[in-house]
Design goal:
By secondary structure, the protein is an alpha/beta fold. The chain is 32% helix and 18% strand. A hairpin with a 6-residue loop joins strand 8 and strand 9. Helix 3 crosses helix 9, helix 7 packs across helix 9 and helix 9 runs antiparallel to helix 10. The longest helix has 25 residues. Bound molecules: zinc ion. The site of zinc ion has 5 residues, from loops.
Length: 368
């Protein structure tokens, strides 16, 4: 029997089926009007959010669940998304790696996809969410910075991936408020921050769709006793944040050591402390609300600078996708090594390509 097929029958899926019976009627009566549905033509992809993406788990994946396992109200909603568990069943820290918080920041998504496909964890656990905001991933980039879809040639043929939007779909969540009041700080943020997963942490049990998704991520970190939480992003090549690790103040020392290590390995990165007084971001709120050391990694995406349209987000000569994915993997590895240096242990894994091999052989050669 195919081991991977066996792993797809999980507690999370069972819970989902059970919840379907209860929530199915509620979804029909309550949820659809709340999302403000008007016509099929205005709908983002209305397929099952859990099967929207071509993620192919490798032998290192021991269990597959859903983010709604941590907030059942998200079951059957467009933000539900797959959670992949890579467990060694040996002592060691637990790490969480999130791609796709902003679904147009594809290097993080592809780094997470590559980890799910290739990594085998030999100490501790690694939990991976490739598409953290699945509603954002179901629609095209509203800024037009990149294509609607992009294609990677792999040994099994050409594979298709989505280039999504930064925020939860208005069709799924409803119109933005006149002003968004962040919870619980009560700071006023721009109105569309209400749909930006990286502006609404720590989220709310009974908030808008994006706030409930953020709350589920926080519950995942608490429930799974995550020690190291990493959010993968991209910024415009002109941004000061490109090639930067941003860290919660409580684990800034780890981040400084990680950046020194990455630079010694030939991957030039900067380090920055989470800003004070700017609420809602993962690197600040995850670390403040939970036991986890929290980090955010940024790489330079040619589709992200303001005014850029239809950039070549895969083969850009200055910042090819393979190099950006390699930077994410190198930065994660450096963060793990920093935790070993400071705390004495780290998640151990094998099977991942180096940044050099990604540049030499291409991203597709490491995807089945
Ligand atoms: Zn981002």
């Amino acid at each position: 029997m195919d081991q991977r097929r066996h792993f797809k029958v999980t507690d999370g899926v069972d819970r989902r089926l059970r919840a379907m019976a209860v929530l199915g009627v509620m979804a029909a009566i309550i949820m659809l009007p709340a999302y403000g549905l008007t016509s099929a033509a205005e709908m983002p992809d209305s397929g099952d959010p859990l099967s929207l993406h071509d993620v192919r788990p490798g032998d290192g994946v021991t269990r597959i669940g859903c983010i709604s396992d941590y907030h059942v109200s998200l079951c059957l909603t467009p933000v539900d998304t797959r959670v992949y568990y890579l467990e060694s069943h040996k002592p060691g820290p637990t790490a969480l790696i999130l791609g796709g918080t902003h679904a147009n920041e594809i290097a993080g998504i592809m780094a997470a996809t590559l980890i799910v496909a290739n990594a085998v964890v030999t100490a501790g656990r690694v939990i991976v969410v490739p598409y953290a905001n699945n509603s954002a991933a179901s629609q095209k980039d509203s800024r037009g910075g990149g294509p609607e879809r992009f294609y990677i040639e792999t040994p099994s043929g050409v594979r298709e991936f989505r280039y999504g939007d930064r925020r939860t779909s208005i069709v799924h969540q409803g119109s933005d408020p006149m002003r968004y009041l962040h919870h619980p700080s009560r700071k006023v943020l721009s109105s569309n921050s209400a749909r930006d997963l990286n502006r609404v942490y720590p989220g709310r049990l009974s908030g808008n769709l994006t706030e409930m998704l953020a709350w589920a991520c926080i519950q995942l970190i608490k429930t799974e006793e995550v020690d190291i939480a990493i959010d993968l992003h991209e910024a415009g090549p002109g941004s000061r944040l490109a090639d930067t690790i941003i860290a919660n103040p409580k684990n800034l020392e780890h981040a400084v050591i990680a950046v020194l290590d990455a630079n010694l390995e030939g991957c030039d990165m900067n380090v920055e402390e989470s800003a004070h007084g700017v609420p809602g971001m993962s690197h600040r709120e995850w670390g403040d609300a939970t036991q986890a050391a929290s980090y955010l990694i940024e790489t330079p995406n040619p589709g992200q600078d303001s005014g850029t349209v239809n950039a070549d987000v895969v083969s850009d000569p200055a910042n090819p996708l393979a190099a950006r994915v390699g930077t994410h993997l190198a930065a994660i590895e450096a963060i793990f090594s920093a935790h070993e240096f400071v705390d004495g242990s780290r998640p151990e894994w094998t099977g991942l390509p180096t940044r050099e091999s990604l540049l030499r052989d291409g991203l597709g050669s490491h995807l089945r």
